Amino acid sequence: MILHCLFRGATLSLSCIILAGGKGLRLGRDKALEKINSLTLVQHSVTTLRGLGEQIIVVTAPGKTDLGLEDFPEVRVVEDRDTGKGPLMGIYAGLSASKSELNLVVACDMPFLNLELIRFMVSQSEGWDAVIPRVGGLIEPLHAVYRRNIKEVAAELMAGGAYSLRQLLNKVRVRFIEETEIGLYDPQNLSFFNINFPEDLEKARELFRQRSS
């Protein structure tokens, strides 16, 4: 599917990359398979992003391919090259599998993705290698849009033993999406609510209950 960007009149291709390879150490179990209502967190992400772009890629740890995605035949599951190296390697694996110039990258533990905010971010990508929200002075590199060509920069960093996302961003052109812009689409900043601890999971379940009541 091709996204028509209303803000600049451009037509851009997009793929969606979901990172699901984390160990969930703070939660104490694999967060990708935790359920809210009847869907796991990774299934929530896939369901929300279905139809947004040309393809959906789920990046997981080596050998961790049983993600309950059999009912989503359009999803391509790819494995990291190595474990314990952090999200930069996951982003690299996803970009390497992508066939699109632009790529949305999200962590699988963000159950409140906002499609209008995502479309706005994509519309701001012209002339930039990455489009990243900034909330409370903190950046959100795992809710961002990346050009596929930054995988070459990532490869160079990792070849030198560097796995920091900040090091990557220091080497590419970044458009930061500020809170005033985010607030037009997601005034509560729920897009960036992620699951780290059991209490986060319970809060997310309660928010879903409130939305459905």
Describe what is shown at a glance.
It holds the Pfam family NTP_transf_3. This protein has 213 residues and is α/β, with parallel strands linked by helices. Helix content is 30%, strand content 23%.
Report the count of strand segments. 11
Overall radius of gyration: 16 Å
CATH architecture: Alpha-Beta Complex
Anisotropy-based shape: globular
Order of helices and strands: EEEEHEEHEHEEEHHEHH
Main sheet overview: 9 strands, mixed
Report the end-to-end length measured between terminal Cα atoms: 33 Å
Question: Which structural class matches the secondary elements?
Answer: alpha/beta
Q: How many distinct folded domains?
A: 1
Mean pLDDT, all residues: 89
Fold-level CATH name: Spore Coat Polysaccharide Biosynthesis Protein SpsA, Chain A
Enzyme class: transferase
Family: Belongs to the MobA family.
Binding site for Mg(2+): 109
GO molecular function: GTP binding; metal ion binding; molybdenum cofactor guanylyltransferase activity
Word description of this protein:
The chain has 213 residues and is of the alpha/beta class. The protein has one domain (2-212): Spore Coat Polysaccharide Biosynthesis Protein SpsA, Chain A (Alpha-Beta Complex). It is 30% helix and 23% strand. The protein has helices at residues 41-49, 87-97, 115-123, 150-159, 165-169, 179-182, 198-212; strands at 2-4, 11-19, 35-36, 39-40, 55-60, 75-79, 102-107, 130-135, 138-139, 143-147, 174-177. The strands form 2 sheets. Strands 1, 2, 5, 6, 7, 8, 9, 10 and 11 form a 9-stranded mixed beta sheet that branches. The longest helix has 15 residues, at 198-212. It is globular and about 50 Å long.
